[in-house]
């Protein structure tokens, strides 16, 4: 990764989907559904992969958009509220 860490890149993608994101440290973020703040997860960047706090692999470095989609789904964010890259550009 250049100037940004993997978790910082993922944090941008998560925030773009409307999730609440807090950086925990250089390798981890806390993410929550803003409509249900008790619904959250810690996502850690380890060994080229993104892992949930329970140790489940949810994505890999370089595929942050798909990883962010999976986290949004996991946290119950309605699919229609997730902006697609084509919609953002228009």
What does this structure look like?
The protein has helices spanning 6-16, 64-74, 85-89; strands spanning 20-25, 28-33, 36-46, 49-52, 57-60. With 90 residues, the protein is of the alpha+beta class. The protein has one domain (6-89). Strands 1-2-3-4-5 form a five-stranded antiparallel beta sheet, covered by helices on one side. Helix 1 (6-16) packs across helix 2 (64-74). It is globular. The model has no long low-confidence stretch (mean pLDDT 86).
Summary, kept brief:
The protein has 90 residues and is α+β, with helices and mostly antiparallel strands. It contains 3 helices and 5 strands. The chain has one domain.
Number of strands: 5
Portion in helices = 25-40%
* Tally of structural domains: 1
Give the spatial strand order of the biggest sheet: 1-2-3-4-5
Mean pLDDT: 86
Beta-strand residue percentage: 25-35%
Count of DSSP-assigned helices: 3
Rg, alpha carbons: 12 Å
Instruction: Describe the largest sheet.
Output: 5 strands, antiparallel
Low-pLDDT stretches: none
Helix and strand pattern: HEEEEEHH
Q: From the helix content, strand content and strand pairing, which structural class follows?
A: alpha+beta
Backbone shape: globular
Oligomer: single chain
Q: What is the straight-line distance between the termini? A: 28 Å
